[in-house]
Write a sequence for this structure.
């Protein structure tokens, strides 16, 4: 049962995947833990904004995972339950946690996912199209009335198999997030700064290039801004770091008044700090254990680290 | 002929290799260009401090390379000319400039190098032991009267073949520079933050981990500071970036009054900017084309990029 009322507004809508992940790192392994781009992004955003989730789960989706969503007060009116099994992903991280290998992907109910936004979501001023097929991103975008600010994430798979659809989405968003590898793949340009400039020419006002443990860069016509990653003491599981970064960033933007290069930069720092907490434990475990004040404290610490 | 007089003081002494490099990148190739750790480090330091060079060249060392040293007003009283050929290195950079392969190394006169410091150098308050064999670093260190601040760089080769000698040097320096790979090699610790902490426990007050295009981090008992790299438009040749970073850093420290976490951080930013100019052309070409004011302008631009 969803606790939200039919017309309660949200600040931010996030669409993406919800999955049960089986993750192996050099240090530990976990089976069927809550994962997926929308799970991480919504949990991260929920510290800052009223966040609505759009996704699909199967009949087997465990109560413990629903409880996790509830604990973040994520609005779940856009969460569909379909006949079948929940999307599953399993992967293994190499020794230094920088590269991962996918062992299996079972789309299950995700294969027939056709997002249909509740009326209250369609009026949301902010929309984050987390990593799903560009066709689904476009479908959600078309259901929105007049969003003030739209961001999209993507992955190498869509660059390879759905480039035309992806390029269409990119033209319609204000902010595109992609990692360094994807920026090179999308543009054929090896040099990262030049690759990012080419992505900017595809339409978005802001392009954020994520570099994992090396931080991120944002490109706009106003120039380039660097945001290093927070150096965590121990990475338990890097899964979802990029989604949490984007979710935190969008949550901060959705609660602010204006979108300017300065507010985007500030939001990126918050996103980076939420991401740094995320990787300190598996799934959403660490995010469940912290409060907004912990994020604020780390933001202050981070500012001391990079002040020059 | 050395133009410096016998007793003229220097602020900073740098010892390391001088070589003729043959470099191939995906974009271009050059043969027998001026290279070596001391060449890059001294050129970088010379923007900020009176810098003395300790190294050896062969009888074949070209006048154009001596002219390059002169153009930076590097003090060359510690430059030896030995019978034989100058040290030579050749290497090739991969497509993304992040990894390089050594094709050949000919030590030549460098094989019998026994640094012997001029009297004026022994009184220098600052010393930078650039990348050479730890035994030679120790020899230079022992010739110094009472240096206020000593930094050392190293490379993976010495970690492998001269670990005990290297550890002895590390115990005697105030600041150790090494790259991320070397920090892991030296400590056997995969996680970079933890590896750096272990290096700190080996003796130095400051440990700087260089991450190439991803910037650098400094560790001390006062905490951790992050300095992203400046995102250059086009990397022509990454050779010497780490040496220029260290040289610029030491030059700034040598001209300052006190060594504190704040002045080290500030010096790292200057080092990073000099390094960013260095990679924009082969050898010392770009550094010869710029002035101190260009470095200051880039420092200001960089501060705007990372302000948050």
């Amino acid at each position: 049962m969803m606790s939200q009322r039919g017309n309660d507004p949200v600040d931010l809508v996030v669409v993406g995947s919800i999955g049960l992940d089986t993750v192996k790192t050099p240090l530990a392994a976990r089976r069927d833990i809550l994962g997926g781009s929308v799970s991480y992004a919504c949990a991260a955003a929920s510290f800052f904004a009223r966040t609505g989730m759009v996704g699909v789960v199967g009949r087997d989706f465990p109560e413990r995972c629903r409880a996790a969503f509830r604990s973040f007060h994520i609005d779940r009116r856009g969460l569909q339950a379909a006949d079948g099994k929940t999307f599953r992903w399993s992967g293994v991280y190499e020794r230094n946690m920088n590269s991962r290998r996918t062992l299996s992907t079972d789309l299950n109910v995700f294969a027939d996912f056709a997002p249909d936004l509740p009326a209250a979501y369609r009026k949301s001023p902010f929309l984050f199209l987390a990593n799903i097929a560009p066709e689904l991103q476009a479908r959600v975008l078309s259901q929105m009335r007049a969003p003030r600010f739209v961001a999209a994430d993507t992955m190498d798979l869509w660059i390879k198999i759905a480039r035309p659809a992806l390029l269409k989405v990119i033209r319609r968003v204000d902010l595109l997030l992609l990692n360094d590898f994807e920026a090179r793949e999308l543009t054929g340009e090896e040099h990262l700064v030049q690759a990012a400039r080419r992505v900017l020419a595809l339409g978005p006002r802001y392009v954020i290039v994520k570099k994992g443990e090396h931080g991120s860069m944002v490109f706009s016509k106003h120039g380039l801004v660097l945001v290093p990653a927070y150096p965590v003491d121990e990475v338990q599981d890097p899964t979802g770091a990029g989604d949490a970064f984007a979710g935190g960033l969008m949550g901060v933007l959705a609660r602010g008044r204006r979108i300017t290069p300065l507010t985007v930069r500030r939001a990126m720092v918050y996103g980076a700090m939420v991401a740094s907490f995320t990787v300190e434990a598996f799934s959403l475990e660490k995010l469940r254990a912290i409060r907004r004040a912990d994020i604020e404290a780390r933001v202050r610490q981070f500012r001391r680290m990079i002040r020059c």
In short: The interface with chain B takes residues 26, 95-96, 190-194, 211, 213-215, 217, 223-228, 231-235, 265-266, 268-269, 303-308 of chain A (CB under 8 Å). Chain A is about 40% helix and 25% strand.
